[in-house]
Queue: 2 jobs
Job 1
Amino acid sequence: MRRAIYPGSFDPITNGHLDVISRAAKLFDEVVVAVAFNEAKSGLFSINERIEMIRGATGQIENIRVSRFDGLLVSFAQEQNACAVIRGLRAISDFEFEFQMALMNRKLNASIETIFLMPREEYTYLSSRIVKEIARLGGDVGAFVPQAIVEGLREKFRG
Ligand code: PNS
């Protein structure tokens, strides 16, 4: 059983994340989408809301599991018997932080490989932060996130 962890904040999940998830699901027997819980960094959506949104958006892919994690990513990966961590790489601007994180994670646990997957080009400019900003300002985010998340964003910014 080859298992990978796809960690992130997913506040909220976007079509770019979903593109990476479906690529990873083809490469591994199981992919655990791991939603980071960070007490110091409260997001727009609660951890449970994010998990439910990801479950809703990935329900049609059989070998996906969604879980929360706190603490070190490599510890969670080891607990889950995963051999790899998946990260999406959109542009050069992502590279420096991702490179630092991948090498630090390797230093912490050399048996877990980080694998970078490139989403479709049309998602290279997409991020949860930008989606939230557009939604907050009343713009249409229907091309960037699943419909349930369009509605979730509308609820958050209503009033
Ligand atoms: O979606 P994000 O915000 O880019 O995800 C970043 C995340 C959650 C993957 C990263 O911050 C992380 O792995 N946090 C867990 C704590 C940890 O292991 N830190 C050391 C990483 S070098």
Note: Residues 3-158 form a domain with the Rossmann fold fold (CATH 3.40.50.620).
Job 2
Amino acid sequence: MTSDLKSLNRTEAILSAKEIISTHRAIVVLTGAGISAESGVPTFRGKDGYWKNYKAEELATPAAFESDPQLVWEWYDIRRRKLLNVKPNPAHYAIAELEKKSDDFTLITQNVDGLHLIAGSKTALEIHGNIWRVRCTYCGIKEENTQTHFEGLPRCTSCGGLLRPDIVWFGEALPEEVLTEVYNSLNRCDVLIIVGTSGIVQPAASFAYTAKNNGSKVIEVNIEETYLSDISDVKVLGKAGEVLPKIVGGMD
Ligand code: OAD
């Protein structure tokens, strides 16, 4: 069945995805930067993946922040400023719609842009944090912070310590309570829909394997083949904002 489904054209793949989703109960959706690409948020890899010749892996690290916090904040400030003018796209809305139609639904996102919640998703397990939250490197306090165009480095209002984005950087552990919820959902789901992720960054890259090993179907939506394509039962090649509304539409 798996290999037959993989060779489907896009229309057939959409129909197969629809069929799988409507005949299974527990749904998990995992999203990556690709879902926000049509909103105008740059992805991390591919042609958009560089800023001043740096890769995300060189800036989103505790070591980079320690050696040059100004540079790292400058990068995040640019990403924040881009987000100010950005709105969810039809893919985000389709996922919020699917949640409404499902009895058992979990959304896991690697994105820090907050667009799923703006689109109406009730909850999103934001495994990499949120760009609009900061954390004090000294006292650990976390707070929402929507400031842009920083003059100098942002400081904690309680203790004056240096603030950092409340984002999980390379080499850092994901929040344990979020991971527990993630694995609970992956252990009981019977459909995992993966949207717009290259499947390179762990642990998210292994979530499809966890679900698959537990007997779940895996549906992938991406504009190109990824490391996760081989284990996907259905691969829908196309832009998330075009494909997801078709998969979710008319499914009551
Ligand atoms: P990547 O930038 O690695 O991958 C984006 C994926 O989206 C690629 O597979 C693209 O083919 C696909 N894509 C692009 N446009 C699309 C569209 N319109 N519709 C569907 N797919 C599309 O992003 P992630 O896999 O999310 O971590 O990267 C994972 C993590 O690496 C990020 O969360 C970030 C980064 O370092 C942190 O910030 C901590």
Note: Residues 3-41+88-128+174-248 form a domain with the Rossmann fold fold (CATH 3.40.50.1220).
